[in-house]
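Throughout our pipeline, every protein is held as a single compact record rather than as scattered files. Nothing more is needed to write down the fold, since each code stands for a local backbone conformation. The record that follows is passed on verbatim for readers who wish to inspect the format.
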Amino acid sequence: MDVEAVKMQLDKITEQRAREVRRPFDDRIVSQLRRSLLGAERGLKSAPGMLRTVIEHEIWRKRVVEETGELVSFKSFEEFVQAPPLEGLGSTIRQVKNLCKDDKAALAALDRATVGEPGAPEGNQNNASGVNQYTLQDAEDSRTNGLSQPICPTTEKKRDRSGRLLRRLREQRQDLHKQVLNKDKSVAEAAIEAGFYPKRISVNLRSPESAASSIRRSASPEFIEALVKDLQRG
């Protein structure tokens, strides 16, 4: 047996022993996460970290339920979430997302578990047309001049939009995605820098002077020139 084969065998044994040591911990952290979903105040603070552990260590895929000694496994993360206790969380993806709505790293982990890693396998024809939620959203923005959403979108709609942008950053601009997770940039700032989302400002339409001042501070000279020409044509 060559050195590489011996190393692989040792790694396999080490991994197996680590899993055996971790078995009770796996079920306990799932139980704690389940209790957090039921609304325990103490659990709410630690829920994002527990969710990341369950996803990053793939505890949701297979574990031994400590109380029954039964080995349970799931084909998808959503199946694990929806399965009744003690096997699963007895919850929904939406509830899990709401529990971790303020933790970008936990939301990114949840996104990976439910959507998949960036990039499709070579030859994948599941979306041969290339049309996705991003191209559809871009088309909608171009038809409506970017005003397809209400002037004051609800918190839920803002969260959904933020989730879409975060997912797109993870798939196409992982450098900016990392800066968002490190809290160096907001989702909006990273999306604007990546060119996924147009820079927008609030304008006071009751005061032309105030509106002009806001535009001068935020817009480029080229934009202002084009805006003036467009207004004059109207």
Remarks:
- The two ends are 82 Å apart (CA to CA).
- Confidence is low (pLDDT under 50) at residues 117-152.
